[in-house]
Each structure stands twice: as structure tokens, then as C-alpha cells.
């Protein structure tokens, strides 16, 4: 028995030594691979020497990444990304039949419109192909009359639906901001027959909007719901985007930092005031909405004299910063467009004399350490 225990212990020591040798051989290789990946992410050449970990080097690398991120975001959020040819073709197609469009209002816009349109254009397409096949037997004088390709167009609020023989239904979604007309987006629905389900074959809708999810959820069961959803999401996206653009143009001198997601469903900005800074965070969980679902406004006083009195009364020993919430401003942001809401917010902050960010004359909620964790 003692000999078996001794053999077992010797075997375990040998295995431990082999593991150490393997780790010693592979760890430098792994570190080298990780170093190469880090260089690639930061834009450095693969063979370049690793720069020091000083703050200056880190800032330089982060600056490079931010520039590349900003450039990529600008390319992805252009009004008409890589769909110029498609958009031009669709614009010409809709322009030809827009004068003869049929207006749909109220209950007249329903799924039966798409079903009837689908059946009409599919039948027209099959008849046209049959007539083309029989042209060899037609008398010469009948060649002078061209074969009509049936085209039907419906007009709705900010939407146009164009059915062309051959089983293709094109939808144009118009967007706007205030009185200004913005870009149009296109989506083509096709089916092989009048009884088959429609599906999306071409579109110019931004990739970060959930078109495919809406197609799976609604197009087969209710084309009207699908078209309305897509139109509402596009209009809300353009409205949020234009609100941010207007804020940049009109309040650029007050904005310290501004961040937004591609779909503008998350917007964060920092406002600079003489006596305080104000952080605004907006979240749009409903992509059909032009107003935020959730808003948060936090102010930081630049002077210790502006600490909210309510905070010092509740827990004076715990207050280590001068940050406080502005519930009234948060209400502005949830009930009105961003430019107007910021006007109300800034006016409320400047309502006092000599202390533009004094919390004594605005409704505040203190931020204590327990609430920020």
C-alpha cells in the first residue's frame, strides 16, 4: 500500500510539471496573439512596437477609434445610403402614376385592398404573357395597338402603394419634420401568384430598423399592419434624427457632449451653463414614438453653495457631490419635442437672478450615494 501511494504521488508531480511546461510554452504565444489583436483594433501596424501605457498613448488610441467610429456612423446614417440606383428607379416609377392615384382614407384602407391588388396584378401579368405568346397569329394591323400593362396606385397618409402587373407591389414611405419634407424610403413586395404570401424582395430602409422582424410578424397575416408599422417607425426615426439636428444647430454653444445611437433610440447630451452642467439621457423603447419613453436629467453645480438644501437636511454627512435630479425638466422631455423641451429646461434653470442653476427655485430630487449605486 505505501508503495502504491508513493507511485501515485510521483505520477501527480510529473503531471503537474508537464502542465507547467505546456503553460510556459503557450502563454507567450497567446500574449503575442492578443497583442496583435490589440494593435489591429487601435489602428497600429502589425509590426509596430507597442507604445507605453501612458495616458497620452491611451488618449491617442481612443481618439483614433472615435474618429473611425464617427466616420463610419456618418456613412451609415446618410439619407440615401447605397441605394441610389434603386431609389432613382422607384422615384421614376411612382412619378409616372402619381397623378392617377386613388385616395384611401379611414376604413377604406384595409387588407382587402392589398388582396384585391395582388390578385389584379398577378392576373394581369399572366394575361399579358399569354397575349405575347399569341402575337404570331394576330393580324398585322393589330400590332399598332400596344398591350396595356395594368398599373394601379393608391395614396394614403405619407404612403403610396403601386401595383404593377407581374405580381409586384411597391410601397413608398414619405417622411417629414414639421413643414419640411424629408427623404422617401421604398419597399418592394412580391408574390408568384394571387394566393401566395407576399415577401420583401428589395428595399431602401435603414438596416438598423427592424424591417425583417416586422415582415415575419405581420406581412403574412396583415399587409396593412405591416405597411403602417414600417411607415410609423420610419417617420419616428426621421423625427428623432431631425430633432437632434435642430438641437445641434440652435444650441451648439450650450452642448458639451452629444451621443446617439444609429436609430436615435438612445440620446445623451451634456449642457454647459455658467454655474452648472446638465446631463440629459433619453431612451425610446417604442420605435414608433417621436417622444422618449424614459428621460433622466441630472445637474452638477460648479459651486458648493448650490447644493440642494433638501439633500443636506436628509443626509448631510453622505453628500459628497452637488449632483441633483430635475423631475420637472424630465417631464418636459417626455411631453414635447427635444428642441422645445431643452428651451423650457434652460429657461427654468435661468429663472433665478445671479444663480442660473440655483436649486432653491426649481423642483429637484437629490442624488445620494444610495440612489446612484
Q: Nutshell version of this structure?
A:
This protein is α+β, with helices and mostly antiparallel strands and 373 residues long. It is 46% helix and 20% strand.
Write the layout of secondary structure elements.
Layout: H1 2-42, H2 55-76, H3 84-97, E1 102-103, H4 111-133, E2 151-156, E3 159-164, E4 168-177, E5 180-190, E6 199-203, H5 211-219, H6 223-251, E7 255-260, E8 266-272, E9 276-283, E10 294-301, H7 309-315, E11 323-325, H8 327-335, H9 338-349, E12 365-366, H10 369-372
Parallel strand pairs: 1-2
Antiparallel strand pairs: 2-3, 3-4, 4-5, 5-6, 7-8, 8-9, 9-10, 10-11, 11-12
Helix pairs in contact: 5-6, 8-9
Number of DSSP helices?
Answer: 10
Helix/strand structural class? alpha+beta
- The topology string of helices and strands comes to HHHEHEEEEEHHEEEEHEHHEH
Distance between the termini: 59 Å
- Uncertain runs: 46-52, 128-149, 304-320, 358-363, 368-373
InterPro entries: CENP-O (IPR018464)
Organism: Sphagnum troendelagicum
Family: Belongs to the CENP-O/MCM21 family.
Pfam families: CENP-O
Structure description:
- Among the domains are: 84-204, no CATH class; 249-372, no CATH class.
- Helix content is 46%, strand content 20%.
- Helix 8 packs antiparallel against helix 9.
- It is built from 10 helices and 12 strands.
Structure keywords:
10 helices; 373 residues; 12 strands; 6-stranded antiparallel beta sheet; disordered C terminus; alpha+beta; 20% strand; single chain
Amino acid at each position: 500500500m505505501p508503495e502504491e501511494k508513493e507511485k501515485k504521488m510521483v505520477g501527480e508531480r510529473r503531471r503537474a510539471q508537464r502542465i507547467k511546461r505546456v503553460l510556459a510554452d503557450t502563454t507567450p504565444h497567446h500574449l503575442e496573439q492578443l497583442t496583435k489583436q490589440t494593435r489591429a483594433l487601435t489602428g497600429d501596424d502589425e509590426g509596430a512596437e507597442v507604445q507605453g501605457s501612458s495616458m497620452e498613448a491611451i488618449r491617442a488610441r481612443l481618439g483614433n477609434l472615435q474618429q473611425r467610429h464617427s466616420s463610419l456612423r456618418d456613412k451609415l446614417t446618410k439619407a440615401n445610403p447605397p441605394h441610389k440606383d434603386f431609389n432613382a428607379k422607384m422615384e421614376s416609377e411612382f412619378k409616372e402614376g402619381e397623378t392617377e392615384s386613388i385616395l384611401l382614407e379611414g376604413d377604406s384602407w384595409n387588407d382587402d385592398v392589398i388582396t384585391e391588388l395582388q390578385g389584379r396584378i398577378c392576373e394581369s401579368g399572366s394575361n399579358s404573357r399569354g397575349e405575347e405568346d399569341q402575337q404570331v397569329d394576330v393580324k398585322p394591323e393589330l400590332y399598332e395597338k400596344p398591350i396595356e400593362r395594368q398599373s394601379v396606385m393608391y395614396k394614403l397618409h405619407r404612403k403610396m402603394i403601386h401595383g404593377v402587373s407581374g405580381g409586384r407591389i411597391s410601397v413608398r414611405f414619405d417622411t417629414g419634420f414639421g413643414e419640411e419634407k424629408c427623404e422617401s424610403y421604398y419597399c418592394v413586395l412580391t408574390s408568384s401568384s394571387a394566393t401566395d404570401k407576399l415577401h420583401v424582395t428589395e428595399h431602401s430602409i435603414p438596416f438598423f430598423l427592424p424591417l425583417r422582424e416586422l415582415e415575419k410578424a405581420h406581412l403574412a397575416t396583415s399587409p396593412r399592419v405591416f405597411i403602417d408599422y414600417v411607415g410609423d417607425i420610419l417617420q419616428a426615426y426621421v423625427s428623432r434624427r431631425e430633432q437632434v439636428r435642430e438641437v445641434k444647430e440652435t444650441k451648439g454653444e450650450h452642448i458639451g457632449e452629444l451621443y446617439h445611437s444609429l436609430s436615435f433610440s438612445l440620446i445623451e447630451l451634456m449642457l454647459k451653463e455658467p454655474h452648472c452642467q446638465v446631463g440629459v439621457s433619453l431612451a425610446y423603447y417604442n420605435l414608433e414614438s417621436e417622444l422618449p419613453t424614459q428621460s433622466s436629467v441630472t445637474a452638477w453645480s460648479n459651486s458648493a453653495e448650490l447644493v440642494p438644501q433638501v439633500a443636506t437636511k436628509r443626509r448631510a454627512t453622505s453628500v459628497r457631490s452637488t449632483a441633483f435630479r430635475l423631475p420637472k425638466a424630465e417631464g418636459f422631455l417626455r411631453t414635447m419635442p427635444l428642441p422645445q423641451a431643452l428651451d423650457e429646461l434652460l429657461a427654468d434653470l435661468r429663472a433665478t437672478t445671479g444663480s442660473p442653476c440655483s436649486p432653491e427655485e426649481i423642483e429637484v430630487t437629490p442624488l445620494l450615494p444610495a440612489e446612484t449605486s
